Amino acid sequence: MGALSDLQPILDRIGAEMAEAPDRGRVADYIPELAHVSDRQFAMAVCLPDGQCLTSGAADTGFSIQSISKVFTLAIALGRLGDQLWTRVGREPSGLSFNSVVQLETENGIPRNPFINAGALVVTDAILTGRTPREVLGEVLRFLREAASDDDIHINKAVAASEQAHGHRNLALAHFMAAHGNLVNPPALTCGTYFHQCAIEMTARQLAMAGRFLMGAPGAARLVSPARVRRINALMLTCGHYDGSGEFAYRVGLPGKSGVGGGILAIAPGRASIAVWSPGLNEQGNSQLGTLAIERLARATGWSVFG
Ligand code: GLN
């Protein structure tokens, strides 16, 4: 990748290609409030170590970050508990869908990794212990606002309520873990906090800005240490797209975390923090065009963790 001036035309071209794409995937509807979002939308934002942020498409339109929030709660939980967190959640890809319950039965209520729903519920439960949901959500918002250098980041209460009203599966995961002694707080309290963290709304620009600590941007170590950042990136690469993680690593070659709102945060260590958004999802619940757009960006720039 040459000078910065080379990058904007690449983003413009990818934006134009995505507008023409015939297969846009399917918008998630198991959270009814998300089903209203039009699948025609696309945005991409790329933040560079020098502080510049380039965009294409609707980069200032807010969307539900959903499971991308799991990266930030993991960073907070590791900051609070350190390696003790790993007694309650593993670090292996699950090879199953994001909301799967099956491994919990054979693996004693210990979720495979912090990015599937069961694992993210444990992470939220860990930071909730001894505190109120309001305090925890305040901390998540403060973390995001500081990371993004932007105070205009909020929770969409309608999305949180919509998920709460249809959250049987996450409640089942939480109850199952409680039965194994791997949940400290009442399942409804942990799930309620989790639904609200997932309902945080951000724009692609804000998300790419917030991801700068993961690319090792100057000054980022004050939020999360470099050693921890490397480990979070390793988990994003191996587990960030659930049963689509291998495919994402193969096609894109960068750590990434998806959400059912259609967002993806991807990190080119030392080079860029990338956010894309397109609400249509593929079979694994990851943004169809978001994946394609990052794949094209990685190919055009040569950005890859594999050299
Ligand atoms: N809040 C969503 C859920 O728990 C998050 C899932 C996702 O983004 N993959 O189902």
UniProtKB/TrEMBL annotation:
Key word Nucleotide-binding present: no
Name of the top EC class for this enzyme: hydrolase
Pfam families: Glutaminase (PF04960)
Classification via InterPro entries: Beta-lactam/transpept-like, Glutaminase
Gene Ontology terms: biological process: glutamate biosynthetic process; L-glutamine catabolic process
GO molecular function: glutaminase activity
EC number: 3.5.1.2
Residues that bind substrate: 67, 117, 163, 170, 194, 242, 260
Reaction catalysis annotation: L-glutamine + H2O = L-glutamate + NH4(+)
Superkingdom to which the source organism belongs: Bacteria
Keywords linked to the UniProt accession: Acetylation, Hydrolase
Subunit-structure text: Homotetramer.
Entry's family note: Belongs to the glutaminase family.
HAMAP family: Glutaminase (MF_00313)
PANTHER family referenced in this protein's UniProt entry, alphabetically: GLUTAMINASE
Name the record gives this protein: Glutaminase
Organism of this sequence: Tabrizicola oligotrophica
Lineage of the species this protein comes from: Bacteria, Pseudomonadati, Pseudomonadota, Alphaproteobacteria, Rhodobacterales
